[in-house]
Amino acid sequence: MSDTYPRPTHRPPTSRPWLRSRSRFVAAFVAFLSLIAGTLAIGASPAAAQSAPGEILFSNGFTSARFLAVIDPGQSSEQTVDLKEFRTLGGVDLTPGAHTVQIYEGQSATGTPVAERTISVESGASKSLSVHPTESGTIATTVFTNDSTPTGSATGRLVVRHIGQAGPVDVTLEPDPSSPNASEGTSESFSLSNGQQGTVRGIVAMENLDYQLTVTGPSGLTITDTEMRFTAGIERNVLIAGSPPQSQSAQDPESLLERERDVGALPPPTVNLVNGFNMDQYVFYVDDVQNASIEALRRNGVLDGLSEGTYTVDAYRNSGTPGTGTPAASIEIGVCDGQSYDLAIHADQSGDPTLSFFENDVTPVDTTRFTVRHIAQHGSLDVEFTGNGENAPPWTTENFTLQPAGEEVIDDAIINDYQVTAYNPGTTSGPVARNGDVEGEGQGTQIAYIMGSPPGEDPSKPLREYLPYGEEPTIPTANPPGSDCTSGTTAPNPDTDTGNEPLGNKFIPVDPTRILDTRESTLGHEGRLADGEAITVQAAGVGPVPADDVVAVVVNLTAADTTTAGYLSAAPTAPNGEPETSNVNFVAPNQNRATMTTVPLADDGTFSVYARGGAHVVADVLGYYVEVQQTTSDGRFVPVDPVRFFDTRTGDDPAGRIPAGGFVEVPVLGVGGVPSDGVSAVVFNLTAAAPSDNGFLAATPGGTAQVDTSSVNYRTNEIAVANQVVVPVGPDGNVRITSSAETDALGDLTGYFTDSTATESDSGLFVPVDPERVFDTRNGDGGVPATQVTPADPLDVDMTAPLSVGPDDVGAVAVNVTAMMPDNPGWVSVSPSGGTQTSTVNLEPFDIRANSAYVKVQSDGTVTYTVSQPMDVLADIFGYFRR
């Protein structure tokens, strides 16, 4: 909703000289003691509430192809849906959670499915699965989240989805010029690509108001629905379909498939009237039309016939009318469907009429909500809110100060009867106004007004006449005060959005490319990072990384020429203070240490690197992730159980140490769970063992002639140094390992990324998360024992615990594992089910080392951390791959 008019405001008191009473806590404790003593009656426990099912609706955008959808294949909950050609179909109800949907061409579930999706269904929510042709005519599936929010009280909603075999199209909605009310209708236009949707909210719905929907596209495509009408509470869902769609102008053209969804409508806004004057009656006009009147010292009556929008309200004393005099007060108000307001005419401190507009909090409440407002002809007032003594405690006590036209909301009052008393500031006798019978019966909003011009002017009147109250019913769909309108009718343009529900992000591997080196003035930031310094690194649009649509990058992050012990931490934005996660750890001056890092990007395509302890920083990009909204063949991560696929120490091929400046070519296709085709890149842990000099390993595609980046940095006679790498597979099916100094090398495979020849699926797509620590054995964070991990007692950790999804949705996780302070040389192995045949982190005595791991999780979300020596271990998560 556009904020082009004054919005009602919760006006906080300008001061609170009194402290809130602790009586509510004391009373609650007394009630608890009574409960355990058996003095409170206890009824039967209600049955546990069951979650409402969700639903998936289906559609088929092909003109002549038929499909079968199998939901939860092989399970007791398995269902099938016959996706007949060129139509929308009914939905199926499903329990909340993740559900696998397989799509088969034809009418039987035989052979290999043409597509497979995992769809998360929420309680009471609705999603749509469309099987449809792409622009080129291949089979695609797209999942859309259906908007189940109500429409406005006088508006409808349109959703247009492009599932036809066509390129981008332009969509135009406009009133039929022959309709009597065409001038009051809604117009909107937007563009859609295949697999996208556009939503128009707040479409004016009136009798005798028809619309036309026109779709234009390539090769002269023009489709027009010549007669479309909208109704409040109804969403019209239009699918541009066909292989290909056909031009036509008619009511309900064949290539525009339609479905209506009853989503309900918000109630119109309620504007209650309040009169704070002692004697005068007022008449209200809305946009120069007489509407309602109210007598003195009252809160009753409403402004009739309002819908969402802006209005000018004039208040006339007694029988004044427009054109015969000047209004006593005027105001412009903006109101939203589904919300409640109070409009008060009252005296300012000079006695002149003024209007105050309040928005009532009518969101559902379990206890009782009280609102106290000050519209009296009086300065600031001290207010006491407490139980009136008619019933036994507990009750709530509040003391606060109100300024003129101010309010106080007591949101969690204990159910009981109350009295509200207003005093002159600094006094507790001679009340200005009092109401000793304000009932708080629960699940409602009680609104009390201190009023009068001035209050107490007539001694014959009881003080309660100057402090009336009333109950305002709660509205289940109401938003908190201050929220924008949700139906959108007063927006300058009705809201549009494009894009279906994203499935995740696919990986695009690149040849390793340096994008940052603080030792070089031409590569990003120049100069060593100081202790506590954070820099911003531009990733999008640099080197092989495109400028747009990149969600995250995979970089080899190196701390070089360190000045002291510390760490590097990479995140989308600079931390506020010291970060809670780390990527690269170093323990002494003059060290060079690297860790592969998967870091989500900020909206401007950058990420931040923070240094604790001084260090130069080098970043080599290994690939990037882009969002996909349909199943895809390429860029999906397939985890494997970790397996060692080469070791130069064993005498197998490749055998023998790598000489200085030399390399080995290692086959990866058809090895260790990696298939012989359909692979774009492999993920493995690369370890340098017993190097003879300071230097580095570089992992590149097989056949690479020149090496400009590094993967593992090592020092003379280190026992072993490891780093995870992602390496594109060379045309010969190999990866190349190059070393700058003589060393042994070994590699442990953990998975691979698919290429465009693989089966389409959403399995293995990446979902980045803000970096978060999962566990830390030093202090027991994450629910693990606060003690070192030992060889005899591996640590099993649910790595999905911090995520917004459960284990059913997660096939692997992207984590950074840090090992700390063993007494002897040691290693940590991270795997789905334990084992000591591979390693993830290698470290020297009393060292701290970190390494990244793309690791497969078990069906319950757990990963096992096995160690060779007692040591502390912690892990930070950066994202997950869909199961």
Give a structural overview.
By secondary structure, the chain is mainly β. It has one helix and 57 strands. Strands 11-10-13-14-16 form a five-stranded mixed β-sheet, with no helix packed on it. Strands 4-1-7-8 form a four-stranded mixed β-sheet, with no helix packed on it. Strands 3-2-5-6 form a four-stranded antiparallel β-sheet, with no helix packed on it. Strand 2 (67-71) and strand 3 form a beta hairpin.
Which residues form runs of ≥5 with pLDDT under 50?
1-49, 488-499
Radius of gyration: 34 Å
Please identify the structural class as seen in this structure.
mainly beta
Mean pLDDT: 89
Beta content comes to over 45%
Per DSSP, the total helix count is 1
Q: Rough shape? A: globular
Span of the ends, CA to CA: 40 Å
Structural key phrases:
883 residues; mainly beta; Jelly Rolls; five-stranded mixed beta sheet; four-stranded mixed beta sheet; 1 helix; 57 strands; globular; disordered N terminus
Write the layout of secondary structure elements.
Layout: H1 23-37, E1 54-60, E2 67-71, E3 79-83, E4 87-94, E5 97-105, E6 115-121, E7 126-133, E8 139-145, E9 155-162, E10 169-175, E11 188-192, E12 197-204, E13 211-216, E14 222-228, E15 234-240, E16 248-250, E17 256-262, E18 270-275, E19 282-286, E20 289-294, E21 298-302, E22 309-317, E23 329-335, E24 340-347, E25 353-360, E26 368-374, E27 381-387, E28 398-402, E29 407-413, E30 416-423, E31 433-440, E32 444-450, E33 469-472, E34 504-517, E35 534-538, E36 550-560, E37 566-571, E38 584-586, E39 593-600, E40 606-612, E41 616-628, E42 637-647, E43 663-667, E44 679-689, E45 695-701, E46 712-714, E47 720-728, E48 734-739, E49 744-754, E50 766-776, E51 795-798, E52 810-820, E53 826-831, E54 841-843, E55 848-856, E56 862-867, E57 872-882
Parallel strand pairs: 1-7, 9-15, 14-16, 18-24, 26-32
Antiparallel strand pairs: 1-4, 2-3, 2-5, 5-6, 7-8, 9-12, 10-11, 10-13, 13-14, 15-17, 18-21, 19-20, 19-22, 22-23, 24-25, 26-29, 27-28, 27-30, 30-31, 32-33, 34-41, 35-40, 36-39, 36-41, 37-38, 37-40, 42-49, 43-48, 44-47, 44-49, 45-46, 45-48, 50-57, 51-56, 52-55, 52-57, 53-54, 53-56
